[in-house]
Design goal:
Mean pLDDT of chain A: 96
Radius of gyration of chain A: 26 Å
Strand order of the largest sheet of chain A: 3-7-1-14-11-12-13
Radius of gyration of chain B: 15 Å
Number of helices of chain B: 5
Strand order of the largest sheet of chain B: 2-1-5-3-4
Order of helices and strands of chain B: EEHEEEHHHH
Number of strands of chain A: 30
Number of helices of chain A: 16
Largest interface: A-B, 63 and 56 residues
Strand content of chain B: 5-15%
Oligomer: heterodimer
Helix content of chain B: 25-40%
Mean pLDDT of chain B: 97
Structural class of chain A: alpha+beta
Structural class of chain B: alpha+beta
Largest sheet of chain A: 7 strands, mixed
Helix content of chain A: 10-25%
Distance between the termini of chain A: 59 Å
Distance between the termini of chain B: 46 Å
Strand content of chain A: 25-35%
Chain lengths: 741, 157
């Protein structure tokens, strides 16, 4: 057993980000900053219709347009015509049909960007419009148009049967809930630069979340072997799930290979709204049965996710939402049914929280309803049913790891309340409506809400997930230096800093250099699912330990006279798929969180001020505490956005607000103080006992804000984002309507 | 058309298409990539620069409008190997995650502190309400502004 000498800047310290300095100086190179001499600009023609036949495409005028070097349509794709993370059903460039507004139809490369844009206008596409399938319930009906020709519009449906799903209860409450389509809106747009190589292959520098899964999808479409398609990570300006699916990747490679020149593609903001997947809108029906003294007896849930036009990650998203639909509570009996369907809406896929967010809005709404029905304190009701280590999920999977649910809730509830301020003599900046100076505090009501939630860490349902790291320890200018290489993607979450801290702690060496992330090493898996600290952190730890053993044999750092190197792959424990009754062992492990929201509502104007958010999160062990708090605060802001303002508005599957003017996100005026609390109970079996921390605040904050707004207004708010109309009674809950058959 | 702009202390010129924004000229013609393009509508502040000393979104200014005028970008704040107090504070306070919004925030904060060396929290929030950050939730950005203000005041003569 090796003894760890405490090294400065190791795990547990809140060291600064290793990329902080270049980022504050404006010197950090993002994908949209890439450039080469002799570079062409690529632009994309997109469908104005959500659903149409493509009868013909005439590119002749575009090809002779000034500066144009290539025009490519679906007919020119040399290899497989479609791509996709799970099912390869999305056309590289639409052929025969378009299935959502903004679907890519053709791409152009030209000497100047403006020339490429002008050429797009000269491509003549003859569309024959079809009615759009816009409603996910309509998609289930037998006579609905079948968007992909086959059987039905169902992407995935699953049913979890637990205990006696028909068990009787003393008391029942029922509710219907909706969540809107949220955009990840990373500030860095989709961007990359493809450079043709002498060997007939291509090098793509790109902002992504997972280099190898991109490579696996790109190469068959280019009709090239994997080793001829080399991906290199460029600077990533945020991701939040939006970069799990391909965007400009194949297009830039096709144009580069056709022209023999480097091709850069950068999406504009409007284009970005159409160019990546979004958070699934959900419709959720739930019935909770309990004993009179407040023990959950039976939960019935039906969840319907709008997957949009193509499959993307709809399968795992509905899997997550359904397996978490009962919340972090012990319940002996349940029937949980989830379905994701195709529509002609924008394709939906990964976003921070990945199905757990939408489920939490519903099950926490139910817990508050149940508390009201029973005349119980909502915190007491939750404590009475809270999961703990050893509790069993409705899938039959026991919670083996740490599950400090009661402590999270108690700490969130006990956080100091914000100082109360009389509304009438306040600076209007501190009233709902704020800088708009619209109200003067006459009709202010306050509310406080609590939410609990949980989510899986890592990929689930039998996915063989791994990450590879190579560590090389050598002497440079007489000092020992560790070089670490992985394909792990730094999206802003702080992975590279954590890798550095782990290497310092394991090797006892202060100087750590990270080599560029690319496909020259094995896959690191995705920077998603709160998994990279565990997976790539775990791989770096294993590789460092192997080097450390070699070093110990040499007799320590003093005898380091030749480079030592080790490559290791980290696997998490094996998970299993669900059986036909939804039983199994699908998740690696879990993290839990509690949130408390304090709000004020101007009940005349329907305006909201969130006064304070408190989030207490189960983090296992904080490897960089300030960075963990940064994740909690940032995730809270995206949760507040979903609760109050963020929604892609669709009318007949057409997007109405694809810009930052019309799609509202929290500004610094909208965000309250976020009080973060960490519960550190090391998780057995994962490196350093550290749990992933990126998603949990986003899971619980929307439900907590919704609960606080219900308390402030007394209204049965059923949908996020909550709009002013909901708060003044112009839009009311449809009550509990029957789920579709 | 040829546009000539005094950028960060030097006269620079570029042959541009008349519809080119100042942001596009700075980035694509002059190679100053510190100012970022995230929304193209003046909503996010990622492209904040000074035009004749006024804080503007470079995406909303035509390059031709800047002809003969003085532009300062984020790159002007750290000449040589130096670092501006606002930049140091953002790094130290953990106000940077993906960092895409950071240069715009730093220009906006430097502008605020030049005008109001000890702003209240409400003033800070109002001054930065035109800058979007998608990663941090703004908490550590507020910390950074307060840290930078106190450092600048201590170092003031």
């Amino acid at each position: 057993m090796s003894v760890h000498i405490k090294t400065r800047g190791g795990v547990g310290e809140s060291i600064r980000r290793i990329d902080g300095q270049p980022k504050v100086l404006g010197q950090f190179e993002y994908a949209s900053d890439l450039h080469r001499d002799n570079m062409l600009w690529g632009e994309t023609l997109r469908s104005p219709h959500p659903h149409a036949w493509i009868r013909s495409i005439d590119v002749s005028a575009a090809q002779s347009s000034p500066g144009v070097r290539a025009v490519i349509t679906g007919a020119d794709v040399p290899g497989r015509k479609t791509f996709g993370l799970d099912v390869q059903d999305q056309p590289v460039l639409a052929f025969e049909k378009v299935r959502y507004m903004g679907e890519a139809v053709a791409v152009v490369a030209a000497e100047q960007r403006e020339q490429a844009r002008e050429a797009l206008k000269r491509i003549a596409v003859a569309y024959e419009e079809l009615p759009a399938l816009s409603d996910p319930e309509r998609a289930l009906e037998a006579d609905a148009p079948k968007l992909h020709g086959h059987g039905n519009n169902i992407i995935r449906t699953l049913k979890i049967l637990h205990g006696d799903p028909d068990a009787k209860a003393d008391v029942w409450v029922e509710g219907y809930y909706e969540t809107g389509m949220q955009d990840q809106a990373p500030l860095g747009p989709e961007a990359g630069l493809a450079i043709p190589a002498e060997d007939g292959g291509v090098d793509l520098y790109v902002a992504t979340q997972w280099l190898h899964v991109d490579q696996e999808q790109i190469a068959p479409c280019l009709d090239l072997p994997l080793d001829k398609v080399r991906l290199h990570l460029s600077g990533v300006g945020g991701a939040f799930g939006a970069r799990e699916d391909l965007s400009m990747h194949i297009h830039a490679c096709l144009l580069a290979l056709k022209t023999g020149r480097p091709v850069k593609i950068v999406y504009g903001r409007q284009e970005s709204f159409h160019g990546h997947v979004h958070r699934h809108p959900f419709r959720i029906w739930m019935r909770h049965g309990a004993t009179r003294d407040g023990r959950l007896v039976n939960i019935q849930a039906r969840l319907l996710a709008d997957g949009g036009a193509y499959t993307s990650t709809s399968g795992p998203v509905i899997g997550n939402a359904t397996t978490f639909a009962a919340g972090p509570y012990e319940v002996p009996n349940a029937r949980l049914e989830g379905t994701a369907v195709y529509t002609n809406n924008l394709p939906c896929g990964a976003m921070r929280g990945f199905g757990a967010v939408q489920a939490c809005v519903a099950f926490e709404g139910q817990m508050d309803k149940l508390a009201t029905r029973l005349g119980m304190d909502p915190i007491e009701l939750r404590l009475k049913n809270a999961m703990k280590t050893g509790s069993v999920m409705p899938t039959g999977q026991p919670i083996h790891g740490s599950a400090p649910v009661a402590e999270l809730l108690s700490r969130a509830a006990a956080m100091p309340m914000p100082a109360s301020e009389p509304p009438l003599d306040r600076d209007p900046m501190r009233l709902p409506g704020g800088a708009g100076n619209v109200g003067h505090g006459e009709a202010i009501k306050s509310g406080t809400g609590i939410a609990l939630g949980y989510k899986n860490l890592g990929y689930s349902e039998g996915f063989d997930d791994s990450s590879e790291a190579r560590v090389r320890l050598l002497r440079e200018h007489s000092a020992p230096v560790a070089h670490v290489k992985t394909a792990g993607v730094e999206v802003g979450q702080g992975l590279n800093t954590i890798i550095t801290q782990i290497a310092r702690t394991e090797l006892g060496v202060e100087r750590v250099v990270l080599d560029p992330a690319d496909t020259a090493i094995g896959s690191a898996g995705s920077s998603s699912a709160s998994r990279q600290t565990m997976m790539t952190g775990g791989a770096v730890q294993l590789a460092c330990q192997a080097v450390r053993e070699q070093l110990d044999q040499l007799g320590g750092l003093a005898n380091l006279d030749h480079p030592l190197e080790a490559t290791r792959v980290y696997h998490h424990r094996v998970t299993r798929k669900l059986d036909e009754n939804g039983q199994g062992d699908p998740h690696v492990t879990f993290a839990f969180a509690a949130a408390r929201a304090v709000v004020e509502v101007d009940t005349d104007l329907g305006l909201v001020r969130v006064v304070q958010l408190g989030v207490v999160q189960d983090v296992g062990k904080a490897l960089n505490p300030e960075s963990v708090i940064g994740q909690i605060e940032g995730g809270s802001a995206q949760g507040l956005g979903l609760a109050l303002m963020e929604e892609i508005e669709l009318k007949d599957s057409k997007v109405r607000n694809a810009s930052f003017t019309d799609y509202l996100m929290p500004t610094i005026l909208d965000m309250p103080t976020v009080v973060s609390g960490l519960v550190e109970e090391p998780e057995p079996g994962v490196p350093f006992g550290a749990k992933g921390v990126g998603e949990l605040s986003t899971v619980v904050v929307p439900a907590a804000i919704l609960a606080a707004l219900r308390q402030a207004t007394g209204r049965d708010l059923y949908r996020v984002p909550v709009k002013p109309d909901d708060l003044i009674g112009l839009r009311t809950s449809p009550g509990y309507r029957r789920p579709p058959p | 058309m040829v546009v000539r702009v005094h950028v960060n202390g030097d006269w620079r010129e570029a042959e541009i298409w008349p519809g080119t924004s100042l942001l596009s000229m700075l980035r694509d013609d002059l190679g100053l990539y510190g100012s970022k393009n995230a929304c193209e509508q003046g909503e996010c502040g990622s492209c904040s620069v000074w035009l004749d000393g006024d804080l503007v979104c470079a995406c909303l200014v035509l390059a031709a409008q800047a002809h003969g005028r003085e532009v300062r970008t984020v790159e002007s704040l750290s000449p040589g190997a130096s670092i501006h107090a606002v930049q140091e504070a953002f790094d130290e306070a953990g106000a940077v995650q993906c960092g895409f919004c950071t240069p715009g925030f730093i220009v906006a904060v430097a502008d605020l502190l030049a005008k109001d060396p000890s702003p209240t929290e409400v003033t800070i929030r109002e001054a930065l309400s035109g800058n979007l950050c998608r990663c941090t939730g703004y908490e550590k950005i507020l910390d950074a502004v307060k840290l930078a203000a106190s450092r600048l005041q201590q170092s003031a003569p």
